[in-house]
């Protein structure tokens, strides 16, 4: 199966090429040229298999140019060896009669991005080999926290790759900083920069578009790449866990084969919920896709009105990974529901960059509201939801998951829909311990990060994730700071150029 650009469907490449390139040259995103299908009997055949086997089966349908051997290696390196703890890779926690929480945060950095970023480096190195590329990949990341750490953990010690991460001096939490400066691995580099996230991001973008720099790296046998969330190699592993969740509901006797389920996802860049849409398209019996936003509610309005308008105030919230005004992966959905109309998509995206907004035609608008329900909640509702979920179910959720649970409850009270629902849980509550403890009515005054972990453990009766607890005793390897203008020099030093 080939991959085509959302802005030019005559441009067609293999999955290895799509993963290696990340973004198409015309600025479009790569999408499968046709959607593979998954029949009911295929789903049933996966029910008694573990996550690794399920993943191999589903990925094989999309990455048709990868051999079984290659896929096996990618999947076992990512999800084997207890990298996601000793239990299931993505366990399903039954919350109530109708709702189950899909815990996507048992990976090394305690957030759902691990599911994709643990496997992407292996896809990428296989893709390099398959396309005859012998150079070493240098991954460059500017991060406001979560992505940088998840990328470092994914790429550390993966042969044929190096990774350099820059984070803003002011702008990441103490624990996020500690996670990065203590990073292990032979091929990693971390530095803070004097400035904010935008400065870090601009610095990285400048290097990506600097032809002289790229040439010099190239001559030294390196090529630059990014671990950005629009890479197909980050999206496809997310489809797997929706298939897997359906299998687990079957296995637990919650549903019978063919029963429809709803899926509710706390959404930012629209990657996670798009993966659920693709699972539905393949044949997983999914009815409604519930798209949950925080106070940055551009998607809620979009789903309800058909107008996408990013010209609005940006809010910093207690669910920071969803603080986003441009949801890049939405472009893939638009392409699909327009029936693959690349000209139309190009126009809409041009409108978005020129005017900050666009409006769907009536047919597409109707399709969006048939597929999706959009809802949002503010920080106060998020905190109240954490408290309420704890009180009602004795279950502690993080600030992002709380947005999803809140919007799910709004959906149910509005529609009365009793369909079994899978709610995606995207981060461990320990990752946002201060907000979670405050929401639960505990005082956080004067507590350092590790005391917060202990306090949350006491309150929630959940074990502290090992990777967070171990930070206390880890050596700090990367305490350097640089100016935005010196980032390239820092990279060259790291690469010994
Ligand atoms: C990235 C992230 C999200 C948003 O996911 P998208 O795929 O960008 O919609 C939600 N929650 C957490 C904890 C995240 O890190």
Overview of this protein structure:
The structure is a single chain. The protein is α/β, with parallel strands linked by helices and 497 residues long. It has a domain at 92-111 and 239-432: Rossmann fold (3-Layer(aba) Sandwich), CATH 3.40.50. Helix content is 46%, strand content 15%. The chain contains 22 helices and 16 strands. The strands form 4 sheets. It has a 6-stranded mixed β-sheet, with helices on both faces. A 5-stranded parallel β-sheet has the order 9-6-7-8-16, sandwiched between helices. Strand 1 and strand 2 (8-13) form a beta hairpin. Helix 4 (68-79) packs antiparallel against helix 6, helix 11 crosses helix 12 and helix 19 crosses helix 20. Bound molecules: pyridoxal-5'-phosphate.
Outline of this structure?
The chain has 22 helices and 16 strands.
Topology:
Blueprint (H helix, E strand, L loop, with lengths): L2 E3 L2 E6 L1 H7 L8 E3 L7 H7 L4 H12 L5 H12 L12 E3 L4 E5 L9 H5 L2 H11 L5 E7 L3 H10 L5 E8 L5 H8 L6 E6 L3 H12 L2 H9 L2 E4 L6 H20 L9 E6 L4 H12 L3 E8 L4 H8 L1 E3 L20 H8 L4 H14 L1 E3 L2 H10 E5 L2 H15 L5 H17 L5 E5 L7 H7 L9 H12 L5 H4 L11 E2 L4 H8 L3
Parallel strand pairs: 5-15, 6-7, 6-9, 7-8, 8-16, 10-11, 10-15, 11-14
Antiparallel strand pairs: 1-2, 1-3, 4-5, 12-13
Helix pairs in contact: 1-6, 3-4, 3-11, 4-6, 11-12, 17-18, 17-19, 19-20
The chain binds pyridoxal-5'-phosphate (PLP).
